[in-house]
Amino acid sequence: MKKMINLIKENYKADLDRRNIEIEIPEVKKEYNRSNAVEYAHLYWHERNKDYGEYDPNNCMNYGSQVIIAGGMSMDHTGDYANYEQWKNYGTNYNEAESPNGLVYTWTYIPFFREYLQHNTDGNLIAMINAPLYSGEGGDMIQISNEDLNSPVHNMVVVDTIMNDQGEIVDLIVNGNTLDMHNWPLSASAYPYKSLVKIIGSNKQ
Hints:
Oligomer: single chain
Radius of gyration: 16 Å
Mean pLDDT: 94
Shape: globular
Low-confidence stretches: none
Largest sheet: 7 strands, antiparallel
Number of helices: 4
Structural class: alpha+beta
Number of strands: 7
Helix content: 10-25%
């Protein structure tokens, strides 16, 4: 337990140290609407939107994907799903066909969602994986793990930030849909590894 607590403290300090790293945000044709994403995250943190089905006890990435859609992004039914090129939930039946029908697991399963972000070569959804944690903004995803940044087991949505007197972010406020978390400080999480997935926008109009 003591080792885990020390690791959490060390990683928190390391994340704070990365606060001032300048990150290059790619230009996109359509920007992510963060206010709409956050509004949706507050609306459905304790409910399940029946339009997208529910996958309890692991509904967290389903909820996160919905938030991204609410932020003005679009599902992606084109490309080879074997290469993680689709991201869709038009219905609860599994369907890898290049059609606006059914579901693929990039929508509901965190590791596959991360693969999609790296393989959707048509630019449908532009995001940065493992961005500096305290560059997080409303509508971004937080993915947490006990192992490392690239093995997340739970997804949450950033809904707000906490600043110090110098105007620096010192904590993120998150919502989660599996445990029905609302306005939780990320620093309260017992998971030592916290990966920020920064949603930028889309290169599709």
